[in-house]
Amino acid sequence: MLIAGLLTSAEIWRNFDLFAIIQRQEVNVFGYLAASLVLATFCMRSMSGLRSMALASNLAFIAYGYLADLMPVLLLHIVLLPVNGYRLLQLLQIDLRPK
User: Fold this and answer.
1) Confidence of residue 10 (pLDDT cuts 50, 70, 90)
2) How far apart are the first and last CA of the chain?
3) How far apart are CA 80 and CA 50, in angstroms?
4) Do 54 and 80 touch, CB atoms closer than 8 A?
5) pLDDT of 20-58, one tens digit each?
6) Which of 26, 24, 57, 25 is nearest to 41 (CA)?
7) In sequence order, what E strands does the chain have?
């Protein structure tokens, strides 16, 4: 029984790929960054700040979705990026109008 447990444990360690785990951890940094930027968007008081932070989070989520091979995340933020960019431009045009 104990020997069978050791063999199973040895098989697990033989298939253990430390490099792959480190790569996943590095990719997760983009996910945590993106999530932090989304949290920051909820803390913004101005719409221009909100849209700017949303653009940054879209870029971070695009990087995360691509590197982690998460197609729904990638596609969603590829679509949201121009939406947030367009809305930010609209806000800036309103702010820049002569009074």
Assistant:
1) low
2) 84
3) 13
4) yes
5) 655 678 888 999 999 999 999 999 999 999 999 999 999
6) 57
7) none
3-state SS, 19-38, equals HHHHHHHHHHHHHHHHHHHH
- Domain segments of the chain as ranges: 26-96
> Does position 82 have pLDDT exceeding 60, yes or no?
yes
- 84 vs 12, 53, 64, CA distance in Å? 46, 9, 18
Looking up tokens 């800036």 gives: 92
**Within a 13 Å sphere around the CA of 84, how many CA atoms are in the beta-carbon half?**
21
Rounded to whole angstroms, how far apart are CA atoms 87 and 14? 52
